[in-house]
Specification:
Blueprint lengths: L1 H15 L5 E9 L5 E10 L5 E7 L9 H14 L6 E6 L3 H14 L3 H4 E3 L1 H14 L4 H8 L9 H14 L39 H5 L3 H14 L1 H14 L18 H11 L1 H17 L17 H23 L18 H15 L3 E5 L5 E5 L6 H22 L6 H7 L5 H9 L4 H23 L22 H14 L22 H7 L6 H5 L1 H12 L1 H11 L6 H13 L9 H16 L16 H7 L7 H6 L1
Parallel strand pairs: 1-4, 4-5
Antiparallel strand pairs: 1-2, 2-3, 6-7
GO molecular function, one term: protein dimerization activity
Main location: nucleus
Subcellular location: Nucleus
């Protein structure tokens, strides 16, 4: 506790020197020992333009996880660090209690809860893929799957009716599932309250396999994973099948889809396709053993019901290809938002274009068209429905439409001006990037969107920043070296634009831009928007770097507004990473650890790792079995070498 108290001073000073708003991510977590915590993280840049992401507090949750209870803990943390005048945006998952928490915080600190709430992108992308795989809890989608493959498949009218009801059901199924205590707490956690709309498969009892088989090929793959997890003999059969079919390749375990790992369905499908030959051999081994033992129906292994047909494998392969962009987007938006070697870094300016790209991806996929990269990282169109019969194509369209429905629903909830503002304040994007995203939509609709966002941004600028006092900058810093190639999302967006416009660049929009001379140079916001986007690869990967090197000098007041939006986190992944560390700390052998000690230790770990405070104990080195040697080296314990030699 003394160590924690000494560290509070430097943390307070760092927060006081924040140049940007202080943004937050917070989330609840329950350990295997059924101990609940609330992780509260801060994201900001300081006066030297260094970006920070630190754990502020990890209080124990002793009451129900209601929105009011969460808001109380967050408000206490805000007051304890004296941050009430620098409150920014909160990036949270889609749990209903988070909405209530934001309303309570808005009432306490006087802000617009809808404007300040940002939805964790990887979380709702995961819910989109699960809606695609499993539909709603209603039986209508199941009926489509049950009759799939029948010679007399339902009529087109019946299919559309059932699909319509199933899609509408996605918006009405609101019961949530609590993750099993058997699930790994060190995985990326999806909270208990937000398992919405679709029956997310967790690790379940084998008695429920019939239920999940109704979800088609992915339900069967899920059941295979359950069987392998619950039977050591079946697991050994799987390993033996791999050794027989590919003796030179490594033996891999099964990748199970669980509700606590984002995009785990794609991982499961990828592993299944990689080991498809071994899976078929495993089923052959099991069937041979059953026949040898008499082949009685009552003794037939239940796992044989999960064997996939040729057409089912085609569905898995097609859906795995459809899910790949979701996996890439989810991982990318979990980034730190700090420029590195990539052209994208998970910054908030990538959020809105990524969602647009995925909507476009599903709209093309339902037409049987995919945009994929070849080995040279060149985008090209490929056909999705080749070598598929009519029923399989129609089934795939059902999956895709369900995914599009869910993603479009979340797209409609992105009401905060911040999503667009981050793109506008990227010096290499500005309004041009949004115009290119919207160029396939009706002109009247996109014009109204732009006018609405322009009015909102102008209001924010005039109310909070236009007359803001500012100090001298800390000096310019040279830009980083230009990055190499664009990342997947940038290449994908560029290829989509070329398809829509018939050229690699849309030069026609330049003539619509008003000349800079027509705009008053006294207004930094108008002056910034009047200039064309910056053509510099280094700043494309590091928009905050441009505001540091150039923008803060030319547009000193506007630079504060820009970085306030650009530093918003796209996901709550940082909080989930802290939960992983907490899970390693709270083990059955440490059952007597007090919860406030756990919270303080995790905060010290975060502050030490960030370089804010150097503890007297090397906390990062005390993990593992060599803790005694570490303590001995730093002089915290003494060992009588002579006595050890005698022993």
């Amino acid at each position: 506790m003394d160590e924690y108290s000494r560290a509070l001073g430097p943390v307070h000073e760092l927060l006081r020197r924040a140049r940007s708003m202080i943004h937050f991510t917070f989330d609840g977590w329950t350990s295997r020992q059924n101990t609940s915590f609330l992780g509260i993280n801060a994201h900001f840049i300081d006066q030297d333009w260094k970006q920070w992401k630190i754990l502020l507090a990890l209080p124990a949750l002793k009451k129900r996880h209601t929105g009011t209870a969460l808001a109380d803990e967050v408000a206490d943390t805000i007051y304890s660090f004296d941050m009430q005048d620098k409150l920014g945006y909160c990036t949270l998952d889609n749990a209903a209690n988070n909405g209530t928490a934001m309303e309570a915080l808005a009432a306490e600190f006087d802000f617009d809860s809808n404007e300040r709430r940002i939805r964790c992108a990887p979380h709702f992308l995961d819910l989109t893929t699960k809606a695609m795989m499993y539909g709603s809890k209603r039986d209508d989608f199941n009926e489509l799957l049950v009759h799939w493959g029948d010679k007399d498949f339902m009529s087109e009218e019946d299919e559309q009716r059932q699909l319509s009801v199933a899609m509408n059901g996605l918006a009405t199924d609101d019961d949530f599932r609590v993750p099993s205590v058997d699930e790994n707490p060190e995985l990326e956690i999806i909270p208990e309250e937000d398992q919405d709309e679709c029956p997310v498969p967790g690790i379940i009892n084998a008695e429920q396999v019939d239920k999940y088989r109704k979800f088609g090929p992915f339900g069967k793959l899920h059941n295979i994973g359950v069987a392998l997890r619950t039977s050591s003999q079946l697991l050994e059969d799987f390993y033996e099948a791999q050794r027989q079919t590919a003796p030179t390749e490594p033996v891999l375990t099964w990748a199970q889809n669980v509700c606590t790992r984002w995009q785990s369905d794609e991982a499961m499908a990828s592993r299944a396709l990689l080991k498809r030959t071994a899976l078929n051999r495993m089923f052959a081994l099991i069937e041979e053993r059953w026949v040898t033992q008499g082949g009685k129906d009552q003794d037939k292994p239940a796992i044989l019901k999960e064997k996939l047909s040729l057409e089912e494998w085609k569905v898995v392969a097609a859906l795995q290809r459809i899910l790949q962009p979701f996996r890439v987007a989810s991982r990318q938006l979990q980034g730190e938002g700090i420029a590195g070697k990539r052209s994208t870094s998970g910054g908030f300016d990538e959020y809105f274009p990524t969602v647009e790209m995925l909507l476009d991806h599903l709209e093309l996929a339902v037409q049987g068209v995919m945009i994929e990269e070849n080995e040279d990282q060149i985008m090209e169109e490929v056909q999705l429905f080749n070598d598929m019969d009519v029923n399989t194509r129609r089934l795939l369209k059902v999956y895709i439409k369900l995914g599009w429905k869910k993603l479009n629903e979340y797209y409609g909830k992105l009401s905060s001006t911040a999503y667009v503002a981050a793109v506008v304040f990227h010096p290499c994007k500005k309004w041009r990037a949004l115009e290119r995203l919207w160029d396939q939509l009706p002109t009247l609709q996109t014009s109204e969107w732009r006018r609405r966002y322009e009015r909102s941004l102008t209001t924010i600028w005039e109310d909070k920043y236009k007359n803001k006092a500012y100090g001298a900058g800390s000096g310019t810093v040279s830009a980083a070296e230009a990055t190499s190639a664009l990342d997947y999302i940038e290449r994908r967006l560029a290829f989509s634009r070329s398809l829509a416009t018939g050229s690699s660049d849309s030069q026609g929009r330049q003539c619509k831009r008003q000349p800079a001379a027509a705009i008053s140079p006294q207004d930094e916001f108008d002056q910034y928007l009047s200039e064309p986007p910056v053509d510099n690869m280094a700043y494309k990967a590091d928009p905050i770097g441009w505001w540091r090197d150039v923008g803060a000098i030319r547009f000193p007041r506007l630079s504060y507004m820009a970085v306030d939006f650009l530093t918003i986190p796209s996901s709550s992944a940082e909080t989930e990473r802290d939960f992983s560390s907490c899970g390693r700390m709270i083990t059955p052998l440490r059952s007597r650890l007090r919860r406030h000690i756990v919270g303080m230790s995790q905060c010290l770990r975060s502050w030490s790792k960030a370089g804010i405070y150097r503890p007297t104990l090397p906390l990062s080195l005390l993990e593992g079995e060599n803790w005694r040697q570490v303590l001995q080296l730093v002089g915290r314990i003494r060992v009588d070498r002579d006595s050890e030699t005698q022993n």
